[in-house]
Fold this sequence. Notes:
By secondary structure, the chain is α/β, with parallel strands linked by helices. The chain has one domain (5-211): NAD(P)-binding Rossmann-like Domain (Rossmann fold), CATH 3.40.50. It is 34% helix and 23% strand. The protein has helices at residues 14-25, 40-45, 81-101, 126-141, 178-190, 208-211, and strands at residues 5-9, 29-34, 49-52, 68-71, 106-110, 146-151, 153-155, 162-164, 175-177, 197-203, 206-207. The strands form 2 sheets. The protein has a 9-stranded mixed sheet, sandwiched between helices. It has a two-stranded parallel sheet with strand order 7-9. The site of NADP nicotinamide-adenine-dinucleotide phosphate has 22 residues, from helix 1 and strand 7. Residues 10, 12-16, 35-36, 54-56, 72-76, 87, 110, 112, 151, 153-154 line the site of NADP nicotinamide-adenine-dinucleotide phosphate.
Amino acid sequence: MKNTKTLVIGANGQIGKKTVKLLADTGMAVIAMIRDQSQAESLESLGAEVVIADLESDFSTALIGCQNVVFTAGSGASTGLDKTLLIDLWAAIKTINYATEANVQRFIMVSARGADNPDNGPERIKPYLVAKHAADFVLMESELNYTILQPGRLLNDAGTALVQTNRPTEASEQIISRDDVAAAIVHCLTSSTTDRQVYELFSGTQTITDALS
Ligand SMILES: NC(=O)c1ccc[n+]([C@@H]2O[C@H](COP(=O)([O-])OP(=O)(O)OC[C@H]3O[C@@H](n4cnc5c(N)ncnc54)[C@H](OP(=O)(O)O)[C@@H]3O)[C@@H](O)[C@H]2O)c1
């Protein structure tokens, strides 16, 4: 892992920054993909190299020379359905295609709980879940070595490093801290037991290693 380069897409995001920091702290080469030069300094101070690219353009060159890709970008709840299509669906699919062309060895996708069956989710986020479902499907059909993480509702609480992959019955318990998602991403990058696996992810009682075995 020390000799590999990891590109984090969505690096200025909340999970993105935590992932960049964890990777840099363990001595791994990390490239933070951001869309705004003014975000560069804070990511460089975490130990990342920075590449500036917009997900709505051709960003294929950002993946060249990278062995690992983490996709943790998202259009966010305050944008319209156009951005759901352009970022959560199309930018994710473009990343899968670019990663295939660039012979990427590991691809970690941050998807969402409920992406397996959008018809079962809340009506108001159904288009988002459809976008996530379709991107996950394209990745599963690809030849890439992937891990898809489908976390529950994200919290900014401190991480516990204790998780579970079984979905709790109560919607209020279908939650997880961004710290723990970032730790799970790093685990997936360094463990072959998660190859070509899909996991929902919630706060729980198991270590990340045990839960994702
Ligand atoms: N919120 C939840 O409860 C929840 C639950 C499950 C899964 N998820 C998923 O978890 C992931 C990460 O969540 P988060 O809270 O870390 O998200 P976040 O803080 O909103 O970060 C998303 C990142 O995507 C980047 N991005 C958006 N459009 C872009 C573009 N055109 N070009 C380049 N970058 C672009 C944003 O860049 P800027 O910083 O420049 O805006 C931002 O840094 C997302 O995929 C989300 O769908 C969220």
